[in-house]
Amino acid sequence: MSVNLSAYNKIKDQLKPYGAKLVAVSKIKPAADIQALYNAGQRIFGENYVQELQEKQALLPADIQWHFIGHLQSNKVKYIAPFVTMIHAVDSMKLLEEINKQAARHDRIIECLLQVHIAEEETKFGLSEKELEQLLEQWRDQQNNLTNIRIAGLMGMATNTEDLQQIRKEFHHLKTLHQSLKACFFASQDTFNELSVGMSGDYTIALEEGSTMVRIGSMLFGAR
Questions:
Q1: Per-residue burial over 103-135, b = 16 or more CB atoms within 10 Å of its CB, e = otherwise
Q2: What's the confidence (pLDDT) of residue 35?
Q3: Cα separation, 210 vs 30, whole angstroms
Q4: Which residues pair with 68 in a beta bridge?
Q5: Could you give the 3-state DSSP secondary structure of residue 24?
Q6: DSSP letter string, 132-195
Q7: In this predicted structure, what is the pLDDT of residue 189?
């Protein structure tokens, strides 16, 4: 077992003043490691691969909140729809509609975060601001037919850089965008409250810039 419980307790203490949640990123880690962190009190775990998530969900306690944080193909949604709590990286209306369809089959509501491209690297997934607004306008027009999903907020990944000011600027920009979209599209609803930014290398900056949910793997489980 390679779970760092002292790091876990430190991170939990750091999150408390912000009221932020910890998503323990457990991809490629064995079920025994997840169970060890569960035994220490952790309940939210993030996975990147559909088949791996299916296998682990069957082996581990039923009250775990599974978050799918990887890039999700529409044809794979059906495999995780029976149990997934939140899908972090929604980047198209097609995917949103498929999540709604599969959630309805299981009489569930699945929370979704819209992934925004905030980094300088072209390789990262995510919507541009224009695409994001277009998607939300489509959703607003169709929301009476999309009752099995709940758009809970935004998700983003900062540029992979040593420049902490660059990272802070990107997180701050996403927080500002989140606030403006909430006012425009969700003013009458108590939803769209989550901002999923921050990983092992930059989560303290993310918290300072308004993150409500940090995704941490290597600090908890060791290098992959």
A1: bbeeeeebbbbbbbbbbeeeebebbeeebbbeb
A2: 97
A3: 32
A4: 47, 87
A5: strand
A6: HHHHHHHHHHHGGG-TTEEEEEEEE---S-S-HHHHHHHHHHHHHHHHHHHHHHSTTSS---EE
A7: 86
For the chain (224 residues), the mean pLDDT of every run of 10, in chain order, is 90 97 95 96 97 97 97 96 97 96 98 91 79 95 94 93 92 96 92 95 96 96 80
DSSP H or E run through 115: strand 110-116
CATH of the domain at 175: 3.20.20.10
What pLDDT does residue 125 have? 75
Look up the domain containing 61 and give its range: 5-221
Give the CA radius of gyration of the chain: 17
Q: Looking at the 3D structure of the chain, how many domains does it have?
A: 1
3-state secondary structure of 196: strand
Residue 27 in contact with residue 48, Cβ under 8 Å?
yes
Q: How far apart are CA 96 and CA 135, in angstroms?
A: 10
The C-alpha atoms of residue 100 and residue 120 are separated, in whole angstroms, by 31
Q: How many residues does the structure list for the chain?
A: 224
Chain CA centroid to CA 29, Å: 18
